[in-house]
Amino acid sequence: MEVGAPDYLAGERQTAEFDVESMKVTWAGSRHALEVSDRMARLVASDPVFRKDNRVMLSRKELFKNTLRKAAHAWKRIVELRLTEEEASRVRFFVDEPAFTDLHWGMFVPAIKGQGTEEQQQKWLPLAYKMQIIGCYAQTELGHGSNVQGLETTATFDPKTDEFIIHSPTLTSSKWWPGGLGKVSTHAVAYARLIVDGQEHGVHGFIVQLRSLDDHMPLPGITVGDIGMKFGSGAYNSMDNGVLRFDNVRIPRDQMLMRVLQVTREGKVIQSDVPRQLIYGTMVFVRQTIVADASCALSRAVCIATRYSAVRRQFGSQNGGPETQVIDYKTQQSRLFPLLASAYAFRFVSEWLKSLYTDVTEKLQRGEFSTLPEAHACTAGLKSITTSATADAIEECRKLCGGHGYLANSGLPELFAVYVPACTYEGDNTVLLLQVARFLVKTVSQLGSGKVPVGTTAYMGRARHLIQCKSNVQSAEDWLNPQVVVEAFEARSLRMSVACAENLAKFPNPEEGFAQLAADLVEAAAAHCQLIVVTKFFEKLQQDIPGKGVKKQLQILSSVYALYILHKHLGDFLSTGSITPKQGALANDQLRSLYSKIRPNAVALVDAFNYTDHYLSSVLGRYDGNVYPTLYEEAWKDPLNDSVVPDGYQEYIRPLLKQQIRNARL
Ligand SMILES: CCCCCCCCCCCCCCCCCCCCCC(=O)SCCNC(=O)CCNC(=O)[C@H](O)C(C)(C)COP(=O)(O)OP(=O)(O)OC[C@H]1O[C@@H](n2cnc3c(N)ncnc32)[C@H](O)[C@@H]1OP(=O)(O)O
Ligand SMILES: Cc1cc2nc3c(=O)[nH]c(=O)nc-3n(C[C@H](O)[C@H](O)[C@H](O)COP(=O)(O)OP(=O)(O)OC[C@H]3O[C@@H](n4cnc5c(N)ncnc54)[C@H](O)[C@@H]3O)c2cc1C
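^ thats the input. predicted complex w/ flavin-adenine dinucleotide below
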């Protein structure tokens, strides 16, 4: 905010009962992370190249070219200022525009790192790090996305020339969707069925050059282009999601990523001791980053809706005094505050998931693979529930802002349009929950075998207790006890998984059973993942959290998140007998009183996200709350208002107004 400018939300900020600067540190993860983030946010906001207020007005071609300009400028600044990787990734975050660079850094580089041998990494990574080649992740095809084993592109080994022949045998085998592929990438990690000596060996990644490094023309045998406009104006259309076909394209044998499986000069196929699932490792990595993205997108929407709800007034004027701020309506609070709590919950669970991922990656380097199934289940499940909740929440925030939320300059429509594909990409959310369900059912089925469940399923080791325990909640206050809450969540989750396993056992064919019970399995998986989020929030509170009143606020938010989920899924808690209807009602009483505690802190709690006005790009979410004059000014900037009488008046409006109506009755 400019120095000396009026702050229409100052009154809201004065009621805060905690130290906002300390909360900023907790949200950012550390004082260092906050400092870096703050510096990079200012760097981006002060640079006119990164302007984004005109984005929705640009044609696709203009938008795309502007994205290229921003990406090139960002890279120039990163090199000139010698920014660290951490700083560079914050620059990307605040530039706030999907671009080919996301796939280059976010998937192409990690695919080579995770699936390439040492020599392959040494050859390709330096080129990729300097952006002397630009890569994408070409897995999905027109006919198959979720079913990776169903991909049709082939990679046939030719022992005569020591090459692979990459080919698209059918229309449905055309690569379809990869970001950065359509117009920019020079290379791809393309996934194809490996065929050696007439035998199939499953789907593997191959580094394929697509375009000339001299004139950017597609290489012989490559057909490549953009797949067309996507949902929403502006939004994800800055990305060149592409289509790609191979017509017997030859690549050297050493361009197959060979960490998991090697093909020798003689055409021998050698399986290393690395599990086949590591071919899916890049997806595990990205799913983990998507959980962190969910907390960012959600906090952004909540920041806009909270500030605006404090500015907006409707009804309730007493004796000519001001009307009621809409944030004071209990209905507004019961819709908004759980989303605020969810933003914090997702932030902390993503922190934990990142540490789990780092730990698993270190173990994989040492040849320890036992934690891979847990890492897969956690990343898949948390990606699924956090993105679904965030997509719904952004739309809810739009509604919380009434009519003005529908204006593009509220920032919410574009945020929604950019965000919703997260429910689909990197694994459709239902398909991913089914993966979690398989993991849970397997864990339950092994309970009797003496195998002790560990990690996030450790609670299943107490199945005997959890299957029959009764919650001892007697008052609304009892619901503030984390142990009581966690036990109710554990009982609900375990009982749902056990019920699924029991029902599955009734089917002679387990796969048929799994297919028939899929809807129940998805619910059991979601219950398990919600338990993880709740537990990790409570565990965060065990840490030393400095700053006046900060921990107290987080305690309130953790209870709000847990009790909101309980209230929303009350049917599960009741039908599994994890709590009684009376206890459910007490949870709701507690939730109401927690909302009242959040109310004086709401604006400060969203200030703690430390978002600049540039990043929020929302008239409704402005830091200073100066909404109405800005809305009014912005309206006049619309190109439709360039002329008082619109184009088309002479052709279409005037003749209409001047028409002779023959039949007066018409
Ligand atoms: C310095 C400068 C810096 C500059 C700074 C610049 C910085 C910029 C940085 C920007 C960063 C931004 C980030 C990127 C942005 C992203 C944007 C979005 C892009 C979106 C990309 C995509 O959209 S890309 C395509 C994703 N497409 C899927 O997501 C397919 C889903 N489909 C499957 O994933 C499989 O198809 C599916 C269902 C598992 C069945 O696979 P299947 O049939 O083979 O397997 P089964 O089900 O039979 O399972 C057999 C056994 O494998 C186990 N298992 C399965 N998966 C496993 C796994 N992953 N890990 C371990 N284990 C796994 C399973 O648990 C079973 O285990 P068990 O046998 O023990 O039970
Ligand atoms: C914006 C965007 C960017 C993308 N970027 C990339 C990229 O860079 N690289 C890349 O390779 N791919 C990319 N993709 C593709 C993406 O990964 C796939 O679209 C995604 O994995 C979903 O697969 P699908 O399209 O085949 O969906 P489908 O599987 O066809 O889903 C259709 C419906 O079927 C249901 N369904 C499917 N299988 C099952 C099942 N077994 N049980 C129950 N229900 C089922 C789903 O729940 C869904 O409701 C991108 C997609 C989008 C939208």
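The mean pLDDT is 96.
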